Amino acid sequence: MLKTYLTLVIIILEVNLFTNCTSKANKTDDSNYNYSIIIITKTQFGYQIFNNDKVYIRQKNIPAIAGNYAFKTKTDAKKVANLVIYKLQKGLLPPTVTVVELDSLKIKYPKF
Asked: Domain total for the chain?
């Protein structure tokens, strides 16, 4: 029951994140946070979160999973960057990302 509830909450957050963020500027409303995508290789991506135009978080690996695995797509990196910004805006520190959240965002990652 709790897992179903958390999944539903995360899906609602995902919809709100993507409707409130503009991909052109990569800025979120009412904050000093924005992000950029890091291109590691042609098929590996990460993200940087900026606060007042200063690097606040540099994430080259998919959070919440063991190992050093980058995101396979820019879209996956953007989804998680938006989630982290949402958590920062809400004052959730540290803005920890969980495996449940990765799954609800449909992020592709190695499962062991």
From this structure: 1
pTM of the predicted protein model: 0.74
For 74, the domain range is: 2-104
Q: Is the pLDDT of residue 13 over 50?
A: no
Q: Quick count: other Cβ atoms within 10 Å of Cβ 100?
A: 13
From the CB of residue 103, how many other CB atoms can be counted at a distance below 10 Å? 15
Query: Residue 92: helix, strand or coil by DSSP?
Result: coil
Give residues with Cβ within 8 angstroms of 28, minimum separation 6: 20, 21, 34, 82, 85, 86, 89
Is 109 a member of any domain?
A: no
Q: Among 59, 39, 49, which residue's Cα sits nearest to residue 85?
A: 49
Q: Would you say residue 110 lies in a domain?
A: no
- Per-residue pLDDT tens over the stretch 27-74: 445 569 999 999 999 999 999 999 999 999 999 999 999 999 999 999
Q: Is residue 93 part of a domain?
A: yes
